[in-house]
Write a structure and sequence with these properties.
heterodimer, A: alpha+beta, six-stranded mixed barrel, B: alpha/beta, Rossmann fold, six-stranded mixed β-sheet, four-stranded antiparallel β-sheet, 10 strands, globular, binds adenosine-5'-triphosphate, binds magnesium ion
């Protein structure tokens, strides 16, 4: 063979730098229908996993949102309370007992009570009235898009979330509504404070809230404790538990987790979401494994030829893994785009579906793992090819 | 000069008991540098089996195979693969090209297997295609080529890795005589290069004339060996 001068080479930089990637792509593209089936399987799987886990994340965030968005270090709750939505009453004197403990900076009361809101058209909806101390603002609304939290110092003032305007028949600030037969006036709206119990939150000053709920002056459900700077929260929580009777004390994160677990476990919502997501994964693995395997079988003579030529095993499964990676990459890209559309369209619905980037990244990892698992039977197959089968 | 491949008293038995087939019965053979060795014999006589044993594709049931003096005895599948990759180029009767790759890419595969960098891989594949007279068909797919052209691509692929032993099993059997002629010429040229050894299983009489040595095998035994010198001596 005479060597040609390199200078006469046409420039084809980049083309097929990774030859196995090219082989993998051609193998897949060779049978377009099958490749389409593979992609549909992966996309279906990604979307199913994304929707289910997005709902799960949405539930978790929704259940815990009042706890997570309250600037309290420790939640003092009635003994045995398992979720923020299901409080019991606490005697007000506990507040002063806690205030007297060393390391406590502030203790704010919080009222959290179900009530009936009468729609302008006469229908009734249950709501949760959240009464907080407007002087400190602890336990108050966040993400306001209209009005200010201070407006709640006006008599009868309440703030609701815009997501529930239709449900509650409320159109604008200034509108008067009836809660438990008493008059309340909407002074603002929040944006995206969802409720897991389907009873929307109605924020009010604690005095207004007690009035609306028909409660006594000293009634409260939670005590929100803030520690002095430098105080260890766990130690303070333990001290409160030890020194104050008939209550439980939890750090903010603990109470949020406790509430989330309660709902996800008792309602089975968590379980069914996780099962559906797992099902998506299984369907994806099965469809992908099936079609990848069929592709491998189609190209067995080529794998045998490679074996005969002396290709090391890793060269062969390198091709199959590249096929899996191409399928995973394309399937994930399409799937996550569709999931993104679903998330966007659910933005104004009362059921939150969230797709934070770690979840999206996790789904990407799941897709890659799914396709790698699907590649296993194909890899097994090519490993058993007899290289002499090409000599006939 | 040492032999490229030495086969010593190799036997090959397929199956066992009643159904056992003795494909090779104590075959000893050397493949030497710069030699075009022709292997002939009736169907079922063991030619392909011998080629597989010589090419480190199959371990013989008994006997010894050495490549460049290294015994293949006890090598794993992967170990034999590494030997094939390093020393052998194969040409098959049915070409065995990748239908989804262009001729250029088909040849590149042989170099990619040997971890050749992309630029060198592309250049050397072009050179190999040029050497078999297909420089202008690099972009064609196997389905667009004639049988003879396909076999030339297969030869380019076998040569691209610069093996020192080329084994071809009936490379011209599926070709018309005109295409076959070209393949024969190529194989002859290949054997003349750089001390390479070429073994061709064939019934093609044109190789007969060019062969340095003709080995005839029947029923798993070498029954006749004839060198070029033997023929020249007996020539009138
Ligand atoms: N994998 C195998 N399993 C069992 N028997 C085999 C196998 N391969 C070959 N044989 C048998 O071994 C004997 C020799 O076969 P081989 O393929 O080496 O012959 P050959 O000379 O190449 O024949 P042909 O000219 O038809 O290609 C035959 O009887 C064949 O049937
Ligand atoms: Mg044969």
């Amino acid at each position: 063979m005479d060597a040609r001068p390199a200078a006469s080479e046409p420039p084809d930089r980049g083309r097929g730098a990774d030859l196995r990637l090219l082989i993998a792509w051609r193998n897949l593209a060779h049978d377009r229908i099958r490749f389409l089936v593979t992609l549909v399987g992966i996309v279906f799987s990604v979307v199913l996993m994304a929707v289910q886990s997005g709902l799960l994340v949405g539930f978790v965030v929704t259940i815990a949102n009042v706890v997570e968005n309250t600037a309290a270090d420790i939640w003092v709750v009635g003994r045995g309370v398992r979720s923020v939505d299901l409080p019991t009453s606490i005697p007000e004197r506990r507040r002063y007992q806690i205030l007297s403990l060393p390391g406590v900076a502030m203790v704010d009361p919080l009222l959290h009570v179900f009530a009936i809101l009468k729609r302008p058209d006469g229908g009734a909806e249950s709501v949760v009235v959240v009464g907080f101390d407007t002087a400190t603002g602890i336990g108050g609304p966040w993400d306001l898009i209209e009005g200010r939290a201070e407006d709640l110092q006006q008599p009868d003032a309440v703030i609701l979330d815009r997501l529930y305007r239709d449900k509650l028949g409320i159109e604008r600030v200034g509108q008067v509504v009836e809660i438990n037969g008493r008059r309340a006036r909407v002074v603002g709206f929040t944006d995206g404070i969802r409720t897991f119990t389907q009873a929307p939150h109605v924020f009010a000053d604690i005095k207004t809230a007690r009035h609306l709920a028909g409660f006594a002056e000293d009634q409260l459900n939670y005590l929100l404790v803030r520690a002095v700077p430098g105080q260890d929260h766990a130690a303070l929580r333990d001290a409160i538990r030890a020194r104050v009777p008939e209550i439980d004390a939890h750090s903010r994160a603990e109470f949020a987790r406790r509430s989330v677990l309660y709902w996800l476990v008792t309602t089975g919502a968590g379980f069914s979401l996780v099962i559906s997501a797992a099902l998506g994964l299984v369907v994806g693995i099965v469809v992908t494994a099936q079609t990848l395997y069929a592709t491998t079988i189609d190209h067995l003579p080529e794998y045998a030829t490679l074996r005969a030529m002396g290709a090391p095993a890793r060269y062969l499964y390198g091709i199959i893994l590249r096929q899996a990676a191409i399928a995973a990459g394309l399937g994930y890209a399409i799937g996550i785009a569709i999931a993104g559309l679903v998330v966007a369209s659910a933005r104004d619905s009362s059921a939150a579906m969230l797709m934070p980037w770690p979840l999206a990244a996790g789904l990407g990892a799941a897709t890659v793992a799914m396709c790698a698992a699907a590649a296993l039977i194909s890899i097994r197959k090519v490993m058993t090819i007899d290289p002499v089968s090409v000599f006939r | 000069m040492s032999a490229l491949v030495e086969i010593a008293d190799a036997s090959m038995v397929y199956g066992a008991g009643e159904a056992a087939v003795h494909a090779l019965r104590g075959v000893s053979l050397e493949i030497r540098r710069g030699e075009l060795l022709m292997l002939m014999g009736p169907s079922g006589s063991g030619k392909t089996t011998l080629l597989q044993v010589a090419g480190a594709l199959r371990a013989p049931s008994a006997g010894e195979v050495r490549v460049h003096g290294q015994s293949l005895h006890g090598l794993t599948q992967a170990g034999r693969g590494a030997i094939r990759l390093r020393h052998f180029g194969f040409v098959f009767q049915s070409y065995n090209l990748f239908p989804t790759l262009t001729t250029q890419e088909n040849v590149e595969v042989a170099l990619d297997l040997r971890a050749t960098a992309p630029a060198a891989r592309q250049r050397r594949a072009r050179e190999a295609l040029d050497a078999v007279g297909l420089a202008d068909r690099g972009g064609a797919y196997p389905a667009q080529l004639s049988g003879g052209q396909k076999q030339r691509v297969a030869i380019a692929r076998a040569l691209a890795g610069q093996p020192d032993i080329v084994l071809a099993d009936e490379p011209t059997a599926a070709l018309d005589s005109e295409s076959g002629k070209r393949i024969v010429a190529l194989l002859v040229a290949i054997a003349a290069e750089r001390g390479r050894g070429v073994v061709v299983v064939t019934h093609d009489p044109r190789i007969l004339d060019a062969a340095d040595r003709i080995v005839r095998i029947e029923d798993g035994r070498i029954v006749h060996t004839e060198t070029r010198r033997d023929r020249q001596d007996t020539a009138p």
